[in-house]
Specification:
binds adenosine-5'-triphosphate, single chain, binds magnesium ion, alpha/beta, 14 helices, Rossmann fold, globular, disordered C terminus, about 280 residues
């Protein structure tokens, strides 16, 4: 069964797309079959993996509105099993169309039901709004990863996000839970970062990932080359961080993930450990 994970936070610029792309790439590197779904009209995840959002044959919008089959919208991202369902400005039409549609909140879930068995992980990049598109992602997902920048206003708006998750859980998707809170653009030298980080630990406890994503200029550069950090600069600190995050999600330790960089070791790791999850 595939794990469907939404990367959500209605706050803009907190690292949702960076996390969606690089977590997806790190899971693919660890020999998982991965589908990245871009639910944002900005199309940043689409462009960030090297697919031209303006040249898509079909977008997530087309199959959400039932105009095209999912298979027509799948784009191959890289060698191996890494695929994309891309988005562009057409997603704005999806937002409107879904509101008029009966059971519009479950459109993504219905569409993914047809294909998710072909993937180990489906990673959904949400737009910066608690919109119909984000609700669709939450209805389809089993887990939510909440990226948070450890700065003064980070906690603002968090209760609205948690309330939305809880109401989707109660009304439509009993399976849904917060998979984890991810500290992004982390600067350990900054006192405020430490304070906000402690607040997050107090509030979310074990649900805060041990992995922190450091502020790393290579992570910011990679999308303009249409590459994940793993492809753009495999030895960057940002690449190590996203490998470690994938390791936490897969229940593997850092050495196993680092070994996974070479093809031979990757095979050995998978055959030895298979897929284990950290959390029950
Ligand atoms: N760890 C990091 N270090 C340095 N720059 C980063 C890091 N993470 C993200 N960025 C940069 O910060 C900006 C915002 O990141 P990103 O696009 O991932 O956020 P987002 O939450 O998806 O934004 P939006 O809400 O607009 O969708 C981008 O320019 C990105 O390259
Ligand atoms: Mg984004």
């Amino acid at each position: 069964m595939s794990e469907i994970i939404a990367i959500a936070n209605q706050k803009g610029g907190v690292g949702k797309t960076t996390t969606a792309i690089n977590l997806a790439a790190a899971l693919a590197e660890a020999e998982q079959r991965v589908l990245l779904v871009d639910m944002d009209a900005q199309g940043n995840a689409t462009m960030g993996v090297g697919v031209d959002k303006n040249a898509l044959d079909a977008t997530v919008c087309d199959f959400l509105l039932g105009e095209k089959g999912v298979a027509e919208a799948l784009e191959v991202v890289a060698e191996g099993d890494f695929y994309l369902l891309g988005a562009n400005g057409d997603m704005t039409a999806a937002e409107v169309g879904l509101r008029d549609m009966k059971n519009g909140r479950s459109a993504l879930k219905r569409a993914l039901d047809d294909i998710s068995a072909s993937f180990d992980y489906v990673i959904i990049d949400c737009p910066p709004a608690l919109s119909m598109l984000t609700v669709n992602a939450l209805v389809a997902a089993r887990g939510v990863i909440i990226p948070m920048q450890c700065e003064y206003y980070a906690l603002e708006g968090l209760s609205a996000l948690l309330e939305t998750i809880e109401s989707v859980r109660q009304m439509i998707n009993r399976e849904l839970s917060v998979e984890g809170v991810l500290r992004t653009m982390y600067d350990g030298r900054n006192r405020l970062t430490g304070e906000v980080s402690s607040q997050l630990m107090n509030y979310f406890g074990d649900s805060v990932y041990n992995t922190v994503i450091p502020r790393n200029v290579r992570l910011a550069e990679a999308p303009s080359h249409g590459q994940s950090i793993l492809a753009y600069d495999s030895s960057a600190t940002g690449a190590a961080a996203y490998r470690q995050l994938a390791g936490e999600i897969l229940g593997r330790d850092d050495n196993e993930m680092a070994d996974g960089r070479t093809q031979g070791a990757k095979r050995a790791v998978s055959s030895l450990f298979g897929r284990r999850r950290k959390k029950a």
